[in-house]
Specification:
This protein has helices at 18-32, 42-61, 67-79, 89-104, 113-122, 135-144, 157-160, 167-177, 191-200, and strands at 6-9, 126-131, 153-156, 184-188, 204-208, 222-224. The protein is of the alpha/beta class. The chain has 2 domains: 6-17 and 108-232, Rossmann fold (3-Layer(aba) Sandwich); 19-104, Putative phosphatase, domain 2 (DNA polymerase, domain 1, Orthogonal Bundle). It has a 6-stranded parallel sheet with strand order 3-2-1-4-5-6. Helix 9 (191-200) links the parallel strand 4 and strand 5 (204-208). Helix 2 (42-61) runs antiparallel to helix 3 (67-79). The longest helix is centred in the N-terminal third of the chain and has 20 residues, at 42-61.
């Protein structure tokens, strides 16, 4: 079996339970801003947030929109469904700041993440976080979940000057990590940003498919549905 020396790991929803932690943070935000005054059914706010968030992050990864636009719009859109609400840009930024503060304190990891990192460390792999997440938030999340200090480098799109799946991001990641494409494996849950980007950069890939009813749309080096499966591969 091929031996890798370097592992590029996506962070959000690969190791860190971003969605689960954000669900809790959204509930906290709803209470803090007393949004029950505008939403008779809180699920309307939550559902519209997730719709907007998924769309905006997809567009952000393609560099179609800026970080500032994402921050404002992912709250402006759902808040606009509140009865009598006309959210201003300032109000949306306040909501975003609160939400990110709440998110960054949550410790939740994806099932098997801690076990995997412990195992990979004992196997002497060089591990590198590769993320499109915001700089100040990602470091707080790493500390909150206890994984800060476990990686050889933390490679973020804001430092790279480009988002995954851009070739520019992966060129930067290879430079910072001093890894070689032929001995590097990219592990991630987002097929478009993590897997297609890494494949285009000449890396082997491990697609963490959290929705196994929808298999990878094109061949990958490995496809897993649980992080523990990587222990049998690496």
């Amino acid at each position: 079996m091929k031996r890798y020396t370097d592992l590029f790991l996506d962070f959000d929803d690969t190791l860190y339970d971003t969605h689960g932690n954000a669900v809790i943070a959204l509930e906290e935000l709803f209470d803090t801003l007393q949004l029950g005054r505008y939403f008779k059914d809180p699920s309307l706010f939550y559902d519209e947030y997730w719709k907007a968030n998924i769309d905006l992050w997809t567009r952000y990864s393609k560099e179609e929109i800026t970080r500032d636009y994402l921050i404002v719009e992912r709250f402006r859109k759902p808040l606009s469904f509140g009865e009598g609400m006309k959210p201003t840009e300032e109000y949306c930024r306040i909501a975003s700041d609160l939400f990110l503060d709440y998110c960054s304190t949550k410790p939740g990891l994806v099932e098997g993440a801690q076990e995997l990192i412990d195992y990979l460390s004992k196997q002497n792999y060089r591990m590198h976080i590769c993320s499109n997440g915001f700089h100040e938030v990602q470091y707080k999340k790493l500390k909150a979940c206890g994984l800060y200090g476990r990686f050889d480098s933390i490679i973020l799109s804001e430092d790279a000057g480009a988002n995954k799946p851009s070739q520019m991001f992966f060129d930067y990641a290879m430079k910072i990590s001093e890894a070689k494409p032929e001995t590097t494996l990219m592990i991630g849950d987002n097929f478009n940003t993590d897997i297609l980007g890494a494949k285009a950069a000449g890396l082997d890939t491990a697609y963490f498919n959290r929705y196994p009813d929808y298999p990878a749309p094109e061949p990958v080096t490995y496809e897993i549905t649980k992080l523990q499966e990587l222990i049998g591969i690496l």
